[in-house]
């Protein structure tokens, strides 16, 4: 089932999400719905807060990035196979040089900005079967995970921009929260006036 994605300005996007347990009701269906919602919106990641649930769960499928011809064959292979569910994740460390990449977000359509992130991460999480896993990622794969991880920490990529950049996109962000945006997927807007 395709769920509406909550837009910029929704309080749930600014809240630190809570851990869940293996017996979380409807977890399997929720994960299936999240993948369906993400694919419908042509995303590479989706966090539970983006569908209105303040829980520590996100999914990624970085395969669309694997088509980039500037990447090595090894990087393309890694991205193609990076389809995962992350439950109660903890980034243990972020290392390497910070590098910029133009990021977007399904909750903030039509806005893309350069965001600086560390190149490598080590993360501990549970998969959809509640097996505990610790892995390391680098490059674009690490970036997709860091972006989604920020969502469960109540952080948006726009929070990482300079104050000048924030001022430049302020009216765009206000319009998104009011529903004045042309997303080609279902969204829920916090400031959309209800018709009487």
Automatic annotation (TrEMBL):
<keyword id="KW-0648">Protein biosynthesis</keyword>
<keyword id="KW-0378">Hydrolase</keyword>
<dbReference type="GO" id="GO:0042586">
    <property type="term" value="F:peptide deformylase activity"/>
</dbReference>
<comment type="similarity">
    <text>Belongs to the polypeptide deformylase family.</text>
</comment>
<comment type="function">
    <text>Removes the formyl group from the N-terminal Met of newly synthesized proteins. Requires at least a dipeptide for an efficient rate of reaction. N-terminal L-methionine is a prerequisite for activity but the enzyme has broad specificity at other positions.</text>
</comment>
<feature type="binding site">
    <location>
        <position position="105"/>
    </location>
    <ligand>
        <name>Fe cation</name>
    </ligand>
</feature>
<dbReference type="InterPro" id="IPR036821">
    <property type="entry name" value="Peptide_deformylase_sf"/>
</dbReference>
<dbReference type="Pfam" id="PF01327">
    <property type="entry name" value="Pep_deformylase"/>
</dbReference>
<keyword id="KW-0408">Iron</keyword>
<keyword id="KW-0479">Metal-binding</keyword>
<protein>
    <recommendedName>
        <fullName>Peptide deformylase</fullName>
        <ecNumber>3.5.1.88</ecNumber>
    </recommendedName>
</protein>
<feature type="binding site">
    <location>
        <position position="151"/>
    </location>
    <ligand>
        <name>Fe cation</name>
    </ligand>
</feature>
<dbReference type="InterPro" id="IPR023635">
    <property type="entry name" value="Peptide_deformylase"/>
</dbReference>
<feature type="binding site">
    <location>
        <position position="147"/>
    </location>
    <ligand>
        <name>Fe cation</name>
    </ligand>
</feature>
<feature type="active site">
    <location>
        <position position="148"/>
    </location>
</feature>
């Amino acid at each position: 089932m395709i769920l509406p994605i909550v837009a910029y300005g929704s309080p749930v996007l600014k809240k630190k999400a809570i851990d869940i347990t293996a017996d979380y009701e409807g977890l399997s269906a929720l994960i299936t719905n999240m993948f369906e919602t993400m694919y419908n919106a042509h995303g590479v990641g989706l966090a539970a807060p983006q569908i209105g649930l303040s829980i520590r769960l996100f999914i990624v499928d970085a395969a669309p990035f694997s088509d980039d011809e500037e990447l090595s064959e090894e990087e393309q292979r890694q991205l193609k196979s990076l389809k995962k569910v992350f439950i109660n994740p903890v980034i243990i460390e972020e290392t390497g040089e910070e590098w910029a990449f133009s990021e977007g977000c399904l909750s903030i359509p039509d806005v893309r900005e350069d965001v600086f992130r560390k190149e490598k991460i080590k993360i501990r999480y549970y998969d959809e079967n509640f097996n505990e896993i610790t892995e390391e990622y680098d490059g674009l794969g690490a970036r997709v995970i860091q972006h989604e991880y920020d969502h469960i920490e109540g952080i948006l990529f726009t929070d990482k921009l300079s104050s000048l950049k924030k001022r430049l996109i302020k009216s765009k962000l206000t319009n998104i929260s009011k529903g004045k945006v042309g997303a080609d997927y279902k969204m829920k807007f916090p400031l959309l006036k209800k018709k009487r």
